[in-house]
């Protein structure tokens, strides 16, 4: 019994070390060539066991392992955060009242008041516009301010990037300006090491078909955007969606005719001036409205008859302000991401 | 009654064309083939379906809006497909292995690039 | 009509899962665009056309354009870094 175990152990030991009897058809892998000369390896070994200050060992450890440790930590923390948020949100959902119940706290006197007297008080046919731009106008003000701040931050960030790699961008533009179909940029010598050939990203501006359609469609798109903005208190829509449609018209113009054409009337300074002006007008108008409303002063803002264009008190100018900010910001994002400047 | 029959015929034709487009997108292998079938069949199918709706609703403001939708689709769909195909031709350096294409030189003469003969096609 | 709503909702869930599962970032952006489009239709079915207009213009139009541009920028910088490392070797 004991001898058998001893034999088994010996065979196992031989197998792990590699000394045991081999089957005949086993393929022995060729010995990998030594990557370093022997003396160099010895040096490395010696240096590994030498006494070194703690700081250098720590630095070496950081160099070798820090990325791994960080990625593991990141993975763990992300999973933990996700689980935490899932538990939080699910527990909140469990406490919500059931959907469509008549006794829900949503169906309180505020919504009744909005529906019954919203048109009278705000002068807007579209109750949603009356709510977001009259009763709850400060929320929309915060939205516009957030958009403006985001555009300014992107301007700062990508402006720094543009200064760093101006060279590559100029090379791309040079290639795009001539009309010859190329396989690769001539001045940027691409070395192809593997079988995979990298795609060359460049875009052209002289596309006759796109220009022909842009001539037809840009006025229609601008008209649609203006309609959506100006009719914001009468029909669905408003400053935000209308501004997005206007920005799409600007993007199409920039794509078909080049950014220089848009740059002629809309650049960084125009964008910042218009957006700040719109935000300030918004803040002053709405501040006066809220101040007078809270102190029971007659604000002197006519509401007009419901259903006309010039009605709804402050909703029309506020819609125009929000539309200007949104159009400028979204086009600014587009121009910044594709060209590096507005 | 006649109006409903015409509308149903137009709608069936449109659905058939759209179905052909869907099958074609899955059957074809290369990008340009897919763009070809998607652009043509989507444009025609949308025209047929929307015109059947116009026939069904008669002379109202709603059918005017549908007409505008048709005009918009006929403007935008071919242009977007053209741009996608152009981007593919511009950025794919391996394209001349799977298809022949030609270009104009500076004087406006047509140059044929690497047109395969029949023997080469049968060999490959 | 309730059947259409169910179909759209199921499509919405499938899209939302596919966005996060998809390997290629470009595919994710395209699926996200279709998600926004279906969401706009659902807003119309829930009788809120304001949100539908905003979702179609911002979610399906502008946001995906910005995503494409961001992907293009990332790709360009990636290729430039690759070129630099190639020329060093």
Q: Mind explaining what this structure looks like?
A:
The complex is a heterotrimer of chains A (342), B (124) and C (89). Chain A has twelve helices and no strands. Chain A is an all-alpha fold and 342 residues long. Chain A has a domain at 206-342. Helix content of chain B is 73%, strand content 6%. In chain B, helix 2 (31-57) packs antiparallel against helix 3. Chain B is elongated and about 55 Å long. The model of chain B has no long low-confidence stretch (mean pLDDT 84). Chain C has one domain (2-88). Helix content of chain C is 91%, strand content 0%. Chain A binds chain B through residues 181, 183-184, 197, 199-204, 207, 209-210, 213, 216-217, and chain B through 72, 75-76, 79, 82-83, 86-87, 89-94, 103.
Give a quick summary of the entry:
Chain A has 342 residues and is mainly α.
List the helices and strands and how they pair.
The complex is a heterotrimer of chains A (342), B (124) and C (89).
Chain A: H1 2-17, H2 38-49, H3 54-95, H4 109-122, H5 127-135, H6 137-164, H7 166-177, H8 208-230, H9 239-257, H10 259-263, H11 268-294, H12 315-338
Helix pairs in contact in A: 4-5, 5-6, 6-11, 6-12, 8-9, 9-12, 11-12
Chain B: H1 2-27, H2 31-57, H3 61-91, E1 101-104, E2 110-113, H4 118-123
Helix pairs in contact in B: 1-2, 2-3
Chain C: H1 2-21, H2 25-45, H3 49-88
Helix pairs in contact in C: 1-2, 2-3
